[in-house]
Specification:
Blueprint (H helix, E strand, L loop, with lengths): L2 H19 L6 H12 L7 H8 L3 H10 L11 E6 L2 H5 L2 H12 L5 E2 L5 E6 L11 E3 L2 E3 L4 H12 L1
Parallel strand pairs: 1-3
Antiparallel strand pairs: 1-4, 2-3, 4-5
Amino acid sequence: MSMQAASTQIASRATAIIDEMKALEGPLLPILHEIQEEFGHVPAETLPIIAKALNISNAEVHGVVTFYHDYRNHPAGRHVLKVCRAEACQSMGGDAIAAQISQALGIGFHETTKDNSVTLEPVYCLGLCACAPAAMLDGEVIGRLDADKIEEIVQEVRS
């Protein structure tokens, strides 16, 4: 498929999503969530389409996408590993855990491994403060992270 055909297909599907949801009260976040669900990220070419449909500026849409950490501007890997960076997890060794995970995967936050197996993202509370430090792998929370659990996570995302 050519780049132009792919772009046209993205624009067409984004327009359909927007048309389905623009009547909602406060439709921007639901539209962005649905577009990310559809494409695995929020493609840059959808931002002006959203802005025009909602009668807001491109800058407003861009500001929302870049403000919220859950929106991605590129597709995620097959797995998404979110590591809690909030104070409770930090106080229980979260900085060291984050460094170990980053080193084991060979990537930093907001990056995807070259083999596209995992994307590493920070998250600022998973609600597992009593089980700190914590992470979430593909929507499944993991508490009391230690070196053994990190090794299990790395093996799982690499397989």
